[in-house]
Amino acid sequence: MSGWVREGHRGTGPGAITPDGCAVELYERLPVGDEPDVIEGAVPARARILELGSGVGRVTHPLVERGFTVTAVDESRQMLERVRGARTVCGPIEELELDERFDVVLLGSFLIHTGDLEVRRRLLRACRQHVADDGCVLIQRESEDRHENLPREREITGGVIRVVSSEPVRPGVRSVHVEYLFPDVRWTQTFLSRPLTTGAFELALAEAGLAVDSYLTGDRTWARALPVTGPSRAALLPRVGKRAAGADAATG
User: Fold this and answer.
1) Distance CA 111, CA 220 (A)
2) pTM above 0.70, yes or no
3) Alpha-carbon gap, residue 21 to 159, rounded angstroms
4) Which positions ≥6 away from 28 have C-beta within 8 Å?
5) What pLDDT, in 10s, does the model give residues 228-246?
6) Angle at CA 75, nearest 5°, toward 69 and 77?
7) What's the pLDDT at 232?
8) Tens digit of pLDDT for each residue in 115-147?
9) Distance (Å, rounded) from C-alpha 35 to C-alpha 49?
């Protein structure tokens, strides 16, 4: 593991561990899910995509194969060394300053749920800053029951992912512990997550100058947001803020 780790995050197991507790060798084993299909169905063909938090390229590679031009951003150089066919940029997403904008900005891997509110604001600012005025931002969020009915496990090719626990550590923030079990090796990851209701999620986007255009999956875990400018942006905040009052605002 490198000397710097994000607060509340840690990982165990063989190979390099990133600052947020991800094991590089583990992510080389994990299969891609339906993310490429969701993304392809929501954006123009051959779009220029800025992928924030690309990891080893599980989603990057299928997108490149489908004709998209991808710029992959990750804070782990070891992760980016596995990426092929895409331009790579190494550094924390919340500090990203590229002098260009993209047709699509992609914020996957539940990064929107970071436990640090300031980091979340800066992640969304990076999304807004780098999306073209006529482009879109695709964001992956947690399912409503992600922190319930634990422990819970699911099988993947060659192994099992087990979400062991999700415990409150401070108001609105939970510490999640996950095990990745294979016949020959075991990895664990512990990370912080801030659950968001739909109202709180939309309010966070509105504060960054983004508005949800549609939810792309039946479980509403993928959303497409559009950039908002001028008077429309100012008008958006009271509407979303009213809906997010009470319990919604408390989780934000």
Assistant:
1) 16
2) yes
3) 19
4) 56, 82
5) 987 655 455 444 443 333 3
6) 85
7) 55
8) 999 999 999 999 999 999 999 999 999 998 999
9) 14
Question: Residue written as tokens 């819970």?
Answer: 152
Q: What is the DSSP letter of 54?
A: -
80 residue type, one letter: L
The pair phi, psi for residue 211, each rounded to 5°, is: -130, 135
- Residue 106 makes CB contacts below 8 A (sequence gap 6+) with 39, 49, 50, 51, 52, 59, 137, 138
CA 95 to chain centre: 16
CA 209 to chain centre: 18
Tokens of residue 197, six digits: 């209701």
% pLDDT > 90, the chain: 88
Alpha helix (H) residue ranges in 30-182: 35-42, 60-65, 77-80, 117-130
d(CA 100, CA 45): 20
Sign of the CA dihedral 245, 174, 181, 52? positive
Q: Under a CB-based contact definition with an 8 Å cutoff, are residues 143 and 152 in contact? A: no
User: What would the two tokens of residue 64 be?
Assistant: 């490149």
Residue 226, both tokens: 């559009």
